[in-house]
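Slide 14.
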Amino acid sequence: MEDTNSKNSLLVDDIQRTQYPYVTGTSVIGIKYKDGILIAADMGGWRSAGQMVWWCVLMKLGGCDVVGCGLVEGDVVGGGNGCGVVALVGSYGSTLRYKSVERLKAIGKHSLLGASGEISDFQELLRYLDDLTLQDNMWDDGNSLGPKEVHSYLTRVMYNRRNKFNPLWNSLVLGGVKNGEKYLGTVNMIGVHYQDNHVATGFGNHLAVPILRDEWKEDLSFEDGVRLLEKCMRVLLYRDRSAVNKLQIAKITEGDVSISPPYSLKTFWDFEAFKNPTASAEGSW
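Slide 15: predicted structure.
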């Protein structure tokens, strides 16, 4: 007698959460300045095409009915009837799919949030935070959540989801000002968190943080802070293939939050290393 369990296992696999990012944003940079907090992020949304590979065992399932699938007998792929989605990262490269993704949001009266990573997970986090601020407002006690409380909440959410093996695929920068006290912190997808005078996510940790360590100072003016962030974003544009030349800078001070309209930076692409990047590489053409 045929083993029905083994047959059914081909059609119905264990239920799993999506654990691969599909539409993602890159680095976010935050700094303290004299009057408050500045956070910068670009507006690119990258779709990893290699993560949209359909799979089914055609010899056993009788073929795939996905329109335009293009698979032949023996290909291992799933979705639809017996099909699912697997990740073959980088197999088809990456595509800049969305060019106007806003990744900076005001949270309540005193906080500002920037996110890199999966955009849909960021939207889920914003729903959590909407519920949190709504509950806080319903107390109507004259008090409101500050950046410390919001950051603490986010660290617990990220760590909780990590422990369920269902993480929210984001790295977050949370800044704010309350009662004259400036606060800037970050938390990643597994709950690792800290606070500092300047923070960054993604490639910004490698390319922007060294610049911030050299040039940041405590009495930074708003204009100098914007120039410093633009310098970091320009370096990321040159060196991070996921960065795009369309960014926003958000400012939060005591009782005031503003997010700039999108704008582009002036760039220079005639560096010799850009013209012929493999000129001095060993074994190059």
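Speaker note: Residues 119-138 form the longest helix (20 residues).
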